[in-house]
Wall-associated receptor kinase galacturonan-binding domain-containing protein (Stephania yunnanensis), 278 residues
Amino acid sequence: MKVLLLLLLLLLLLLVVVGDAGDEDECEPRSCGDLHNISYPFRLKGDPRINCGLADYELACENNRAILYLYHGSYYVLSISYNNYSMRVVDTGLQPHNCSSLPRHSLTPYNFTNYQDPYDLHDPYGLLYPNDDRILFVFVNCGTIDAVNSSDYYYVDTSPCINASSSPKNPRNSSSNYVVCGLSNLPVDVIKEGCTVELMVVGSTTGSNFKYESHNITTYYDIHREMLKGVELSWSILLCQPCFHKGRQCSVYQELNGLFVTKCFSNCKKPSQSIHCA
Ligand SMILES: *[C@@H]1O[C@H](CO)[C@@H](O)[C@H](O)[C@H]1NC(C)=O
Ligand SMILES: *[C@@H]1O[C@H](CO)[C@@H](O)[C@H](O)[C@H]1NC(C)=O
Ligand SMILES: *[C@@H]1O[C@H](CO)[C@@H](O)[C@H](O)[C@H]1NC(C)=O
Ligand SMILES: *[C@@H]1O[C@H](CO)[C@@H](O)[C@H](O)[C@H]1NC(C)=O
Ligand SMILES: *[C@@H]1O[C@H](CO)[C@@H](O)[C@H](O)[C@H]1NC(C)=O
Ligand SMILES: *[C@@H]1O[C@H](CO)[C@@H](O)[C@H](O)[C@H]1NC(C)=O
Ligand SMILES: *[C@@H]1O[C@H](CO)[C@@H](O)[C@H](O)[C@H]1NC(C)=O
Ligand SMILES: *[C@@H]1O[C@H](CO)[C@@H](O)[C@H](O)[C@H]1NC(C)=O
């Protein structure tokens, strides 16, 4: 009798263990091409396991490349880092061995709501370290105007990769075309009068000691190579979801020791307004 009971208990235990394993299997990571371990909160579009991952973090898998649709653009996902809630993406218009290929869309800090107001968070994605210095590439058509370098920015000729006159977007009769390289806080007046801005692309975070030389940027080939590295996005706003579910405002930031901290505010928009709120 005792043996039978023991056997029954064992069987029960086994069932429980098997049941648990089954639950884990249910949301096993997916992969798409070179991107492995696509797991919560990410999910692949069309995945029949509707309870795995969040709709806000859906990626498409097209021709074996994971693609993030962001605003008007589409971006190849190069990597996802689950420990620091970040990812690296590159515009799908850029082709590695074709320096004439361009990003399909401008992307600057201003496209992200977290740059304008860190407490007004609606997007599942933001720039990683939104207020840090980044390289910014401003594509301009200056016609026949002479471009001028300064110590803070740099006009780089886009030929022979892109010739102004052959650009269909650009019916103007122009003989020169430049990319102005600077930091993302590039003052507007560095774009010379008469030059038309065609495209603006933000690059990697640079830290404060940015020097073109240290990034080896001297020709347009270097700019193309730099754009191909893509840009780091943050999805740490995910940590605010429990707070949002309570109908509150939230902000999230990373402390120097790497820990992520969320602040959940009562109905007020900003902590400074909390005095006037319930
Ligand atoms: C895969 O992602 C999970 C988080 O969803 C993480 O805990 C795990 O370390 C990752 N594995 C690899 C090999 O990156
Ligand atoms: C970013 O904003 C610019 C200017 O409003 C717009 O032209 C561009 O399409 C936006 N980028 C994306 C990816 O939507
Ligand atoms: C995020 O984590 C990855 C993997 O640990 C690391 O390679 C990367 O440098 C980190 N990025 C930032 C911005 O901390
Ligand atoms: C390189 O990119 C340009 C611009 O997108 C395109 O017109 C051209 O066909 C591409 N060349 C190759 C070899 O793919
Ligand atoms: C700007 O400086 C770089 C590096 O010294 C040079 O290659 C480039 O031709 C200069 N551009 C203009 C418009 O003077
Ligand atoms: C731009 O013009 C140069 C010189 O005329 C030519 O060699 C090059 O192929 C052109 N590039 C493109 C993308 O048309
Ligand atoms: C472009 O320049 C050429 C020669 O300078 C001129 O003949 C032509 O009319 C110009 N085209 C336009 C659209 O201005
Ligand atoms: C710049 O080029 C030098 C020499 O080719 C190389 O050692 C260095 O790592 C490069 N720097 C960057 C940021 O790519």
